[in-house]
From TrEMBL:
One GO MF term attached to the UniProt entry: nucleotide binding
PANTHER family assigned to the protein according to its UniProt record, in alphabetical order: BILIVERDIN REDUCTASE A
UniProt lineage: Bacteria, Bacillati, Bacillota, Clostridia, Candidatus Ornithocaccomicrobium
Domain GFO/IDH/MocA-like oxidoreductase: 132-250
Residue span, Gfo/Idh/MocA-like oxidoreductase N-terminal domain: 17-120
One Pfam assignment: GFO_IDH_MocA_C3
Highest taxon in the source lineage: Bacteria
Protein name: Gfo/Idh/MocA family oxidoreductase
Length: 346
C-alpha cells in the first residue's frame, strides 16, 4: 500500500487529487496538513483521516511514503526541500516555483535524495491534446509556423475563487502564473524551449495580480510563433489549441468533444489509415476538413496515477523535474517580460 500525505487544501485542484487517491486500491491517504488549521481539521474529518498540525511530524513519519503538494505556490520550495530531504516522493501542482533558481534548488534536493518527482501536467494526458501532438509529430501539417493556446474562465468575477487566490504573497501571480502554466507546459511538451518570450498583463478587477494575460514566444529558432493567453474574467472561453502549419491546420476545442483537421484532400488515404473514428466533413476545392470525435481520443492515465506507478512499480516518470524547472523558467520569463516591457531571453 502506497501511503500519501496531502499537503494543503489551498489549491482548487486538491479536489481533483484527493478523491483519486482515495479511490485507488493501492493507495492510502495517511494524513492531511493545511496552512489553515480550521480548514485542515474540517477536511480531515470529511475524508476520515488524521490531521497533522506540524509538517515535521510528517517528515519523521515512516508511514508516509509520498506527498501531494497543493499548498501555496510561494511555499513549494520550503515544503519540497523538506520532503525530499526526508526521503518522501513528491507530486506537485504547477508551477513548481516562480524562478528558475528556486526550481533548480528543488531539483538538486530531488536528485540527491533519489525520490520520485512528478508535476501535474494534466493536459498532457488529455486525449485531444495527445492526438494533436501525434499529428504534429507525424509531419503531415508541414512546418508549424504558428500555434495558439487559450484557457480562460469567469471565476475571477463570480466569487468562485477565494480571496487568497489574488494574494501575490501566496500565489506569486495571477491568470498567467497559474492558469497560464497549462499553455506553457503544453508548448514545452510539443516544441521544447523557446528562444525569446514577451508578455502583457491586464488588471480589470484592480487586484494585485493579473486577471488576464498574453504571452508570446518563439520556438524552433524563431520559425514558430506561439500565442498563449489566459483569463479569470471571461464570461465564457472554450479551451482552444490551434496548430497552423504550411501543409495543414489542427484545431482543438474541448467543448466540441473532438479535433478538427484541415489537410489537402489527397491526404485522405493516409489520414484514414492512421486515425480511426474520423469523419470527412467537407471538401473545399483542394482542402478537406476532417473531424475526429472525442470518443476516439481517450485520455491517458492521469499524472497522479503515473506518479503512483513510478513510485510503486518503477514505471517511467512522465513529467519529471527537468520539465518542471523549464516551466518555472517560462513563468519567470513571462513575468520579467511584462514587468520590464521588454523581451526576455529564455
Amino acid at each position: 500500500m502506497f501511503r500519501v500525505a496531502v499537503l494543503s487544501r489551498w489549491h482548487p485542484h486538491e479536489s481533483r487529487y484527493t478523491p483519486e487517491l482515495l479511490a485507488a486500491p493501492d493507495c492510502q491517504v495517511s494524513c492531511v496538513w493545511d496552512i489553515e488549521e480550521e480548514r485542515g481539521r474540517a477536511w480531515a474529518k470529511e475524508i476520515h483521516v488524521p490531521f497533522v498540525k506540524d509538517l515535521e511530524q510528517i517528515w519523521r513519519d515512516a508511514q508516509v511514503d509520498g506527498v501531494v503538494v497543493t499548498a501555496p505556490t510561494t511555499m513549494h520550495k520550503e515544503i519540497i526541500l523538506a520532503a525530499a530531504n526526508a526521503g518522501k516522493h513528491v507530486f506537485v501542482e504547477k508551477s513548481l516555483a516562480l524562478t528558475a533558481k528556486d526550481a533548480q534548488d528543488i531539483q538538486k534536493a530531488i536528485e540527491s535524495n533519489s525520490v520520485v518527482f512528478t508535476i501535474a501536467y494534466i493536459r498532457c494526458t488529455t486525449g485531444p491534446f495527445m492526438f494533436a501532438k501525434t499529428v504534429k509529430d507525424s509531419g503531415i501539417l508541414g512546418d508549424i509556423t504558428m500555434v495558439r493556446v487559450r484557457n480562460g474562465h469567469n471565476q475571477g468575477l463570480n466569487g468562485v475563487l477565494p480571496d487568497y487566490w489574488f494574494d501575490p504573497a501566496q500565489t506569486g501571480g495571477g491568470a498567467m502564473t497559474d492558469l497560464g502554466c497549462h499553455q506553457m507546459y503544453l508548448l514545452d511538451w510539443m516544441f521544447g524551449t523557446p528562444s525569446t518570450v514577451n508578455a502583457m498583463y491586464s488588471y480589470y478587477t484592480s487586484r494585485a495580480v493579473e486577471d488576464s494575460g498574453v504571452v508570446t514566444a518563439l520556438y524552433n529558432d524563431g520559425k514558430t510563433l506561439a500565442i498563449m493567453d489566459s483569463s479569470f474574467t471571461t464570461y465564457y472561453s472554450p479551451y482552444t489549441f490551434e496548430l497552423y502549419g504550411t501543409q495543414g491546420t489542427l484545431l482543438v476545442r474541448l467543448d466540441q468533444n473532438g479535433v478538427e483537421v484541415h489537410l489537402p484532400k489527397d491526404a485522405q488515404p493516409w489520414f484514414a489509415s492512421k486515425y480511426e473514428g474520423y469523419v470527412n466533413k467537407e471538401i473545399f476545392g483542394d482542402r478537406a476538413r476532417y473531424f475526429v470525435a472525442g470518443k476516439a481520443l481517450p485520455d491517458a492515465p492521469s499524472p497522479l496515477r503515473s506518479w503512483i506507478d513510478a513510485c510503486t512499480k518503477g514505471a517511467p516518470v512522465l513529467f519529471d523535474i527537468n520539465s518542471a524547472v523549464r516551466l518555472a523558467r517560462m513563468v519567470e520569463c513571462a513575468n520579467i517580460a511584462h514587468r520590464t516591457e521588454q523581451q526576455c531571453r529564455f
